[in-house]
Amino acid sequence: MLLALRNLMTASLSNDRGSTFRAGKRYYNRARYLFAVFTGCAIFTLILAGALVTSNDAGLSVPDWPTSFGSLYRIPPMVGGVRFEHGHRMLAEFVGLLTIILALWTWRTDERRWMRRLSITALAVVAMQGILGGLTVLYFLPPAVSTAHAALGQTFFCITVIIATFTGRGSVATPERVSQPAGRRIARLALISVGVLYVQLLLGGLFRHGGMSWWPHVANSIVVVAMLTWTTFLALSNYKDADQIRKPALLILILLMLQVCLGSAAFYTRVLHGREALRPQLPMVISTVAHVGLGALLLATTVILTIRVWLAGLQSEKVGVKLLPNREITGGGSREYIVAGHNRKRVTWVVYRSPEIEDAMNPLRFLAFYLAGGLVAMLAQVVASPTSTVPNLGASGAIAAVMGAFLVTYPRDRMRSLLLIFVFVRVIFIPAALLIVVWFLIQLFNAGAVANVQTGGVA
Q1: Could you tell me which residues come within 8 angstroms of residue 92 by beta carbon, excluding any fewer than 6 positions away?
Q2: Less packed terminus of the chain by CB within 10 Å, N or C?
Q3: How far is residue 459's CA from residue 440's CA, in Å, rounded to a whole number?
Q4: Contact 407, 249 (CB under 8 A)
Q5: What is the pTM of this model?
Q6: What is the percent of the chain where pLDDT is above 90?
Q7: Cα–Cα distance between 98 and 356 in angstroms, integer?
């Protein structure tokens, strides 16, 4: 999809005479932009509705297609699985109507050739999506067809997000806004990240529809975390001052961490806890549907980041990645470091906090921010284990809040860290974007390792 879009945009640049890069009023139509956003929200709701159908085993609750219990227009009793399956069909018809309107509107009002073709592509994809949805019913939910239906649905969502993004005011970066060249390396890496996410989508779809075991999906998630972390770090390092690249990169990191949490919850409720359940349990349904929805947002955000990095690269005459000087963040006194880790397996992380965060907030606000982070983590622990009598502190949450503030404020800086492994001591410099992901994964591992052990919590 991205390669086809790249070719369309390249072919249209000469015809548009460079105005594609102008975030001016030529292509901005507020009504069309809002309608495109509404269509994207409707498609996202449709994805959630489809996840509800699969999670509740309601795929054959309405056994015929294109009719519903022999009728094209009559609404059947919305009980049991019928309310999920038939509700999904009704919402799909509404989305199809919205897509037709958006395609015609774009074709008549937008002068960019690639945008016109993309709107027609969206129309073709939604028609194909409806056919695949019907085939899943007629052939009794074959895993390959059901997975293709799910993957094409997320592709359709990404196309609509692209249309909505690049019809907004100021949606395309100008040469003045982009101060660093992306180079072919970052653009290629971002495109690979999208491919890795698509593989993850296919593996998850095959698992959910009974065509594959769970372990390939879990194993590939490690590759997804590594690729997205690497991609966003390079984007943040080279485009710190370009909001249209920096914001989606930061959003990807946030969505990635949430997705790991939801994936762990879905694995626990579906594979570990719900394997012997006679019918889908509510925790499994909620965690799985949220995992699918957040995956769609993560994929769409990565696609937008890829396109914007590629467009920024076209504005630069340089090729390759510009290596920016790294500022070493060190501490100079007892108040300037935080012990950010645990002594599990005798591995300790000591992360030095930059005093710039405290100076930016002033000491009182920084103290309030630090305590608020700990309080939120402590409350989250209470919500997760309301019956637990084990006392817990919010130290890890407070540290995570400070690290998050550092990442948002100084996304391309490196933090000086002291790594202690048994008797091995070494000072290393870790990018802020990578450090917070590593920290999050360590906390997640520790939480899973002590899930059934009655020990004090640190939240």
Answers
A1: 46, 129, 130, 133
A2: N
A3: 12
A4: no
A5: 0.71
A6: 40
A7: 49
